[in-house]
Amino acid sequence: MQALRKHIHPGWFIIAPLLILVATLYLSPILNILWLSVTDPEPGFGNYAKLGESDALVRIIWTTVRICIITTIFSVTLGYSIAYAMVHCHQKQKNYMLTLLLLSFWISILVRTFSWLMLLGRNGLVNGALQDIGLIAEPIAFMRNELGVLIGMVHYMIPYAVLPLLVSMEALDKRVMDASRNLGATGTQTFWRIYLPLTLPGLVASTLLVFILSLGFYVTPAVLGGGKVLMVAEYISVQLLVTLKWGTAAMLAALMLFGVLAMLWIMSRFMKLSTVFGGAAR
Amino acid sequence: MQDKQFMKEMLTDSAHAYKDGRMDRRTFLALCGASGVAMSSVMAGDAQAAADEVVMWNWGGQSVECHGSAIGDAFTASTGKGVKFDTSGPLEGKIKEMVDSGNVTADVADADLFNAVSLGPTGHLEPIDYSVVSKEKTLPGYALEYGVSVILYGYAFVYDTEAFGDNPPQSWADFFDTAKFPGMRSLYKWANGSLEAALMADGVAGDALYPLDMDRALAKIKSIKDDSLYWGSGSEAHSMCVNGEVSMGMIWQNRGRNIETDTDGRYKLVNNQALAMPGAYIVPKGNPAGAAAMQFIATAQEVPAQLALLECLGMTPSNPAAFGEIPEDQQHYAITSAMNIDKIVYNDPTWWGENGGDAVNAFLEAIS
Q1: Degrees, nearest 5: CA angle A110-A111-A115
Q2: What is the DSSP code (8-state) at residue A242?
Q3: B229, A240: Cβ pair inside 8 Å?
Q4: What is the third-level CATH fold of B2-151+279-323?
Q5: B250 Cβ contact partners less than 8 Å away, ≥ 6 residues apart
Q6: Tell me, what's the pLDDT at B309?
Q7: CA distance B366 to chain A (A)
């Protein structure tokens, strides 16, 4: 026992139950998925080989990645502006903005998705109003296509983009910007050369968060895409529940997992990921 | 969620134990109290009811009320057993998962007959006991080893009378003819019905549909892809019509009356070439109530239950003895009524059971 103590810090005994819990409840289901992806319907890498054989699978993955990238660009850009405005306005206005942001954050995704249909649908408020004042003759197809999916997803993702950015902007030492102006830089120069680089960890954090969450979107594409925008999450659910091709579903899930891990690894080559997740730079 | 499930199972087990005398009354009541389940039945002094029940696995919504009043009441009256509902929707994958996990909590699943073809031979279903359930009380060909059709639903379409009032569309050929009938269409997203409609539109006779010519069907589907939306649930199909997003919409035929009512008659149901789908009751392997599930199915086959399901849910009877008794005002909305039965075509559950998975994927790939 004494020898054991020497090699193992007693702290481990305290966190061991938690580690075991995480391992059994979290790692084992993931391992089960990985196992399923190489054993169902028959052992081997047949499920992964399908990626090479089927244009459709590649197209679904490409649609997913494309939509997620566009969603991320718009959410993070808009989120950056919102966070910037929040940090630089009066406390009272900031509180209003935060309340509005959190309100939309708390509303269920289903409600938010269907309200877009009411607003921008074929006979929705916007199309109705535009037609009534004679601006357009035919309703504009905002919904039931890829545009609709993007609108719904960007709207849902903005709070996720704002919150990490807000934290990172609030932590900045404002005197650095003053110093920059003092030394003769213009406002634009200060933003591009001082402010933006200093908020980069927050920017990366919100980009990662938004992109990874977007990958799993299911309800929004299913409802706003009119059935024509098929993303990986919905395809996985069909393979699990309707066509019983659990191997294909597991393969796609594993692919998403490794895709995200690979992304994190590539990021880690260029920057310290710990700063993104709130740690110190060194 | 998990907790509730656990409580339910614990209570069912303890009710069995209490009934067999392995547990005393005090402990059983304490457990009921602790779990907060079935208090009402316990208080009524009817402690055994918790054990003596059939769990019907359906799709929620109105069907709880309707299955209860149409089948449950008669079943309870004749057998003394209660009926409970699991409303999570018995999709094929969920049935497979439930049976594979060894934790079967449902007795009768309100599913499709093609599910019986795909899940039966793999050992996920109990065979139907045809000494209790009747083969005569359903359409010929719809009483299979692992499932029997109790109701029919169907794929038909509605059209916008404001767009096509003078020259209404009559058939699937008109539905797919966007030159003659301009406007958006909606089709079912999981292939079923959509493929058959496409083939009929392309000139295949209603009795020569199977085996489905997938390439031909998908080519036809793609030909109107730019003018099509696809729905995944009945409510979505409903809202696409009621909100005026489509000028013709494929719908589950039992929704027809609601759409006509909700649009004040602007959308009209066309039953010509409607595809009759056998909705079946199937029994997950190792179901808790055992043989009582078969009695439940037999009750649902009776004419009063069949007519009550039509009245309450809009599901068409599959028992030929009920066809003649469909009331006048329901005739138009029941596909096996004298008014419609000669115009409809029938789904082949065997083809769908054997090829459905690949067909759904091919369809999804074609529309996305």
Answers
A1: 115
A2: T
A3: no
A4: D-Maltodextrin-Binding Protein; domain 2 (3.40.190)
A5: B155, B156, B157, B175, B185, B186, B187, B188, B193, B194, B197, B237
A6: 95
A7: 9
CATH of domain B153-277+337-367: 3.40.190.10
Any domain includes A47 = yes
Is the CB of B114 inside 8 Å of chain A's CB atoms? Answer: no
How confident is residue B320, by pLDDT bands cut at 50, 70 and 90?
Answer: very high
Q: How far apart are CA B220 and CA B230, in angstroms?
A: 15
Alpha-carbon gap, residue A151 to A50, rounded angstroms:
32
Measure the CA–CA gap between B89 and B132, rounded to whole angstroms. 26
What is the rounded radius of gyration, in angstroms, for the C-alpha atoms of chain A? Answer: 24
| Residue B314 contacts residue B254 (beta carbons within 8 Å) | yes
Instruction: Please check whether residue B268 is in contact with residue B161, taking contact to mean a CB–CB distance below 8 angstroms.
Output: yes
B244: nearest Cα among A227, A134, A144: A144
Q: A228 or B35, which is more confident?
A: A228
What's the distance, Cα to Cα, between the start and end of chain A in Å?
36
- Higher-confidence residue of B25 and B78: namely B78
Residues of chain B positioned with their CB less than 8 A from the CB of A123: 243-245
Closest CA to A120 of A144, A136, A89, A156: A144
How high is the pLDDT of residue A199?
92
Proportion of chain B in helix, strand, coil states, percent, rounded to 5: 45, 20, 35
Band (pLDDT 50/70/90 cuts) for residue B40 is: very low
Peptide bond into B127 cis (omega under 30): no
Asked whether the beta carbons of B296 and B315 are under 8 A apart, the reply is: no
| A208 φ/ψ angles, rounded to the nearest 5 degrees | -60, -45
- Residue B43's pLDDT band (boundaries 50, 70, 90)? very low
Q: Is residue A235 part of a domain?
A: yes
Q: Is B232 on the interface with A (CB under 8 A)?
A: yes
Whether residue B360 and residue A238 make contact (CB cut-off 8 A), yes or no, is yes
Distance CA B199, CA B351 (A): 15
CATH number at A232 reads 1.10.3720.10
What pLDDT, on the 0 to 100 scale, is given for residue A1? 61
pLDDT above 90 for A3: no
Over 80: is that where the pLDDT of B77 sits? Answer: yes
Paired strand residues for B337: none
Amino acid at A8: I
* Position A213 confidence tier, pLDDT thresholds 50, 70, 90: very high
| Enclosing domain of residue A44 | 40-276
**Taking 70 as the threshold, does the pLDDT of residue B49 lie above it?**
no
Cα–Cα dist A150/A143, whole Å: 10
ipTM field: 0.84
Q: Per DSSP, what are the bridge partners of residue A110?
A: none
**Domain spans in chain B, listed from the N-terminal domain onward:** 2-151+279-323, 153-277+337-367
Question: How is residue A278 written in tokens?
Answer: 């709130």
pLDDT score for B42: 41
pLDDT at B237: 93
Nearest by CB: A227 against B96, B232, B243: B232
Answer yes or no: do A238 and B118 touch at CB < 8 A. Answer: no
